[in-house]
Task: inverse folding
């Protein structure tokens, strides 16, 4: 966590810091919405593979139901002093369909392999289209570090 004194970073530094956090953090907030059931937000473990966020949750969860009905999602890392918000579209994979590389990396990071569970699980892959990152008011103006799937800076 960072102190409350905010020193403005340029876009390249915010991009580097964002990529470092994606590679090292464990938890992410996932926001979905369903046309009939409304918004839903939960924290999940995640893996960043360098291009996309991979998460896994129970196959019958509201998160999966919503992502299948409306794939546009928002993701956020849990730190209000060092904000990272992402938007993208979720693609769902059953535990049997998930690419082996992603399933193995997820299991390696968390020491838990949903593919081996008796209950059905679904992996969600989100390749961000937009990423916003900022630490306080000095960085609000130029907070977009990814636009249309392309990192800035």
Result:
């Amino acid at each position: 966590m960072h102190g409350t004194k905010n020193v403005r970073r340029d876009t390249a530094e915010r991009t580097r810091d964002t990529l470092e956090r994606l590679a090292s953090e464990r938890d992410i907030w996932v926001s979905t919405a369903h046309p009939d059931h409304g918004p839903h937000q939960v924290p999940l473990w995640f893996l960043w593979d360098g291009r996309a966020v991979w998460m896994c949750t129970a196959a019958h969860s509201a998160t999966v139901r919503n992502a299948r009905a409306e794939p546009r999602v928002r993701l956020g890392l849990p730190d209000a002093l060092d904000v990272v918000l992402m938007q993208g579209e979720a693609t769902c994979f059953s535990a049997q369909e998930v690419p082996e590389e992603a399933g193995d990396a997820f299991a390696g990071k968390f020491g838990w392999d949903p593919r081996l569970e008796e209950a059905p699980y679904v992996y969600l892959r989100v390749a961000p289209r937009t990423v916003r990152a900022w630490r306080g008011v000095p960085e609000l103006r130029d907070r977009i570090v990814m636009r249309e799937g392309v990192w800035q800076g």
Q: What stands out?
A: The longest strand covers residues 121-134. The mean pLDDT is 95.
